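Input.
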Amino acid sequence: MTTALARGAAAMMTTLALATAAPALADSGEPLYNLVDAAAQRLQTADPVAANKWLTGGPITDPARVKVVLDAVSKDAESRGVATPYATDAFTNQISATEGIEYARFAGWKFDPVSAPTTAPDLSASRSIIDGLNHQMVEQMSVQWPLLNSPGCRPALDAAKNVVADQRQFDDLYRTALDVATRSYCPAG
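Output.
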């Protein structure tokens, strides 16, 4: 890959960072669509975050940040009538999925250093997007709480994941990450 291509890849990452806050192409009739789409948008922050960590030498895992996020979503969940353990499990899975994408990006850049980013958005910008998406996700968990705890959850979740993954043109890595991020959404089935 030439230097021009590497710069193009970095520019694409910056564009992706800005695009992650955008909703998918079209809302669907799937009841869990908004929750799953927010989770997907949150996954899409992994690329600009990984680029920042690559360039700054920051670690992929950040236990202090994880604690801040889990404390905030637990408090938000409790205020909205969502069980705190449910929210903690869901966001622990979300964080694991995001870290998985970051590890995959690091591996790719180690194998092909020329493809590594040369610029990245500031980490605080990505974290601001993440915090907003976390709030949206907890809000949607509250709105969909009866469905999330019903036998109808699994088919509704699968349908929403398919629509969102197709609309966002997720590759295999992102589809797997979406499965991991949402795996505890349906505790009843």
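The domain at 3-21+33-181 is CATH 1.20.59.10 (Chorismate Mutase Domain, subunit A).
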